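W.,

You were right to be curious about this one. When I first looked at the sequence I had no strong expectations either way, so I just let the prediction run and decided to look at it fresh. Below is the sequence, 168 residues in total, followed by the output.
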Amino acid sequence: MRQRTAPSPPPNIFLATSRQMINFRAMADVDDRMAEQANNKKRMLDALDESHGIITRACQIAKVGRTTFYEWLDSDPEFKASYEAVNDSAIDFVESKLFEKISGIDLVTGYDKDSGDPIVYTQPPSDTAIIFYLKCRAKKRGYVERTELTGADGQPLEVKVITGMTIT
């Protein structure tokens, strides 16, 4: 009985294997960079949440450059959607503070040394906050400011159109 021998490998098999190893290393490097970038994006979103959407402060907290942040915003739709969700959360927070101003609040500023009773400061409703809210959210009901332009003593405005050097 004749023994079979394995065919000899082609002469360039070691070259191909080396290239594959280089490709695997390059792929691993890419995976590492992608994982690091995903981690940086998460840190940035957490920092945005902490800073109530203030980009400069969030970049400082996350140690991410503003240019990088804006590149992510332009190139990554998922990151942009997450940023918009954080931004909406910040707006909700500010709106809640506006409603506190509108309704007035009681603030505990400390406790009486003798009785232990809370020292309460009542902050009355803010006319400015009420007006601001109505101007922004109740325009349909007429809460808008209009400016009417008139000439001297209520007369119509005189408009002169200048074309080139000729006044018509």
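Here's what jumped out at me. The beta strands are 105-111, 118-123, 162-163, 166-167. And, maybe more interesting for your project: The chain is about 55% helix and 10% strand.

Coffee later to discuss?

I.
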